[in-house]
Design a protein that fits this description.
Two copies of one chain form a homodimer.
Chain A lengths: L5 E4 L3 H12 L4 E4 L11 E3 L5 E3 L10 H9 L4 E3 L5 E6 L2 E5 L8 H18 L13 H6 L2 H8 L3 H15 L8 H10 L3 H5 L8 E3 L4 H11 L4 E2 L4 E6 L4 E5 L2 E5 L1 E4 L3 H4 L3 E3 L4 H7 L7 E8 L3 H4 L2 E7 L4 E6 L8 E8 L1 H6 L4 H16 L8 E6 L18 H5 L10 E3 L12 H18 L2
Helix pairs in contact in A: 1-9, 1-16, 2-16, 3-6, 3-7, 5-7
Chain lengths: ~450, ~450
């Protein structure tokens, strides 16, 4: 006799998507969440005057069909990210405005960036999403970092600067910190580079009215009382041929199976009795989380719109790498969302919040002129400091990891199943991937349930 | 009022060396050890007939002065590793015997290996051991993997094969799995490459009669009853301005300070209240342990000695990378010690013990002839599977980690101090480094103790 059929560890999108699928079949589920809130890497916040802003993952692209379906089923609404007008790029002190697909690069650099993109996508084409380690020439592609490949394939400083800004914008990590194979897997997983980078037509096209954290909140509400236990950090999972016992601060739950739906590096911190095989432990030692501090800078109006700007900026010069228009749907104020990502996040984490604000505002003045000098509010969130996330956007695999350890990423071990955005073959690292991973884990559990 | 002055987490060499220094000044120390034994990555074992063999770290070099002093103070004795006669190298199916410093390589390859060694050591010379991240051109050296550097600097397949065998022999990891900066730091830390690789004159010169695990056992005995608590896995460290509380299975200890003397990846699995800064957590997400399965193959006599061989073999062809003569000091039988290291260890971990034995014996027959076909015993230890080590020989830093996170490796956080072979600037990764790190942490504690 167990307390329930399935324990889910982690009430982020992956865990809750799994729980929703499982309860729909009549199974009894308990979701254990370390924090006093659900939604994991989605996080609602607000400006001082109450305007809601999102401090975690917020955008959804139209090809992200599983999370969109869920948004719809839960009665939430989306609206398009503001995307009218020109973007700007800052490089070597010069702000260039553009309305085409050049990102404001010089002609030569734009051509070179395009050539590199084509070559990378050609390399990505044959990568296996379900088994990256079995892709053609996998060992050779995996032993190289993306940084090595970029340096070996271009001498164009401006094109390199662009890639060295785009990659952290996607991964919150530097090109040297992931294998070429990981990069190729990831871009293919999300429909290639334009699909990842674009606002309209890409992964940043839509926002959820009121915030994406409501997806998790609504699932939790739908699951009903007593299913999701907040403030219950799991520390130990005992497992044998018959059942699992999941031990958390203040109690334990027994079940037939457990779905561990936290980032791999956090899954590796739990104690398992018996201990897991070296192949699984070695994997979780090697999927570090990305580094990001997300900021929201508010102004009385979205003044950049009046100048015909869409609020999208690529900054190749300083730490505030990317900016987008993140104003509320009702337009009652203007908000620019910005990111310190990868190496910049590690630098910025050593600054005080006041320093970060001052530097961010200085960058915005460079990008958008003196009107950016006097924000009415500034809020930020350092995901590296969050004990139960320890970095965003997600985990990455460095040189050699996919080919030597990758098969342990989502393969169940006895009664233990693994979910989370990092374990998805489609839209890996995104909300959509998280949802898919939850469904996949739920399907595994159902297939194994008599 | 606290239970003691200092809690040490981990009764390996680092923790015990720290405890010994601290108790010598009159401080009250408690050492909490997860296992039911001391000595961490040193581990005594024996053949079926009782002959002692070491399943963990076993060799000591003469320049490793701190661990040698400790061996002497504890009344242990050393004896020289058997090193008379020729070595052999297996490459592309051919066994070459050599008595010089060529490792049996072709003339061209030997010259190329030497040239690369000189270049690497010239690059290592300016590296700062105390602050690798502040070395000249650190960011540029750190973004490259050792593998990239090797491929960029030679086209000689045989020389590359040699380096691709030497590096796992030193790190239990592949050249792609560490940054060039980490490699340079590490070789300088141990007195450069010859010092690391050599038996006589190098890090493999001496053995401890009865085994190195006795160093830890004698320190524990010297500390006296009740100081070292075995079977006490620490899971949580509560810390504030006044004291620390170290919580383990079955109890907790309060103290003024704590020395955490476990590998960084395991230190990162503990829970800290309050949680540690992102810079420290990000570091411990990124120091994966090496991969090794150590084997001992016993024969009635050390028959290779009769053929004028010293028992040292470099195997560039298959998984059993390195072999040495590991016969007991009294010569009552012959023992070859071998290693599956790095990528080979990950492959071999998927085999059954019988398969590993069969493959190892087949390799030894290739290297030493038909006399190797019938061992009287075979024992092995998979360090990746050890829950409270999770890999040997030690942790390594991949591309970008030293320069972005390295300063958090040994820097105390409030009342938390860090020890372990990975935190030493001299003989990093070796027993000597472990001892030095314990002394350094003890000195920090003493300096901070009123």
């Amino acid at each position: 006799m167990t307390d329930c059929d399935v324990v889910v560890v982690g009430a982020g999108l992956a865990g809750l998507a799994a729980a929703r699928r499982l309860t729909a079949t009549g199974l009894r589920v308990t979701v254990l969440e370390a924090r006093d809130r659900v939604a994991g890497r989605n996080l609602g916040g607000h400006l001082a005057d109450g305007v809601p802003v999102e401090m975690g993952g917020q955008w959804i692209g139209r090809p992200q069909t599983e999370v969109l379906k869920l948004v719809d089923e839960l009665g939430l609404e989306t609206f398009p990210t503001y995307d009218r007008g020109d973007g700007v790029t800052l490089y070597r002190g010069k702000v260039t405005r553009y309305s085409d697909e050049t990102f404001g690069l010089s002609d030569d650099a734009a051509v070179e960036v395009g050539r590199l993109q084509q070559e990378l996508e050609a390399l990505a084409e044959p990568v296996s999403l379900s088994s990256p380690w079995a892709s053609p020439d996998a060992a050779d592609v995996d032993r190289r970092t993306l940084d090595e490949w970029l340096r070996a394939n271009t001498d164009d400083a401006e094109a390199l600067a662009f890639w060295n800004a785009v990659v952290p914008a996607l991964f919150s990590a530097q090109p040297a910190e992931m294998s070429l194979l990981h990069f190729l897997f990831y871009i293919k997983s999300g429909g290639m580079i334009d699909s990842l980078v674009a606002t309209t037509g890409g992964a940043q096209e839509l926002r959820v009215v009121g915030g994406t954290h409501q997806i998790s909140e609504r699932i939790a509400a739908e699951l009903g009382d007593g299913i999701v236990r907040l403030g219950s950090p799991v520390h130990t999972i005992v497992h044998d041929d018959d059942h699992v016992e999941v031990v958390f601060d203040g109690g334990s739950s027994t079940a037939a199976r457990v779905v561990v739906a936290v980032p791999p590096t956090l899954a590796g911190r739990l104690r398992y009795r018996p201990a897991l095989p070296g192949s699984r432990d070695g994997l979780t030692q090697q999927i570090p989380m990305g580094s990001v501090i997300k900021i929201q800078v508010a102004y009385p109006t979205p003044f950049w719109r009046d100048a015909g700007l869409n609020g999208f900026a690529f900054n190749l010069d300083d730490e505030l790498g990317v900016t987008l228009d993140n104003s509320p749907v009702d337009g009652r104020c203007g908000v620019l969302v910005g990111f310190f990502e990868g190496a910049h996040a590690r630098t910025a984490a050593a600054w005080t919040p006041d320093e970060r604000r001052a530097r961010a505002v200085a960058s915005l003045v460079t990008l958008y002129g003196p009107a950016a000098a006097d924000p009415i509010d500034y809020v930020e969130h350092d995901w590296m400091a969050e004990e139960f996330t320890r970095g965003c956007y997600g985990g990455r695999l460095g040189a050699g990891v996919w080919t030597q350890y990758g098969s342990a990423l989502s393969e169940p071990i006895g009664r233990l199943h693994w979910a989370g955005a990092e374990t998805s073959d489609v839209w890996n690292g995104y909300m959509d991937g998280a949802v898919r991973s939850g469904y996949r884990a739920a399907a595994e559990v159902l297939a194994a349930t008599p």
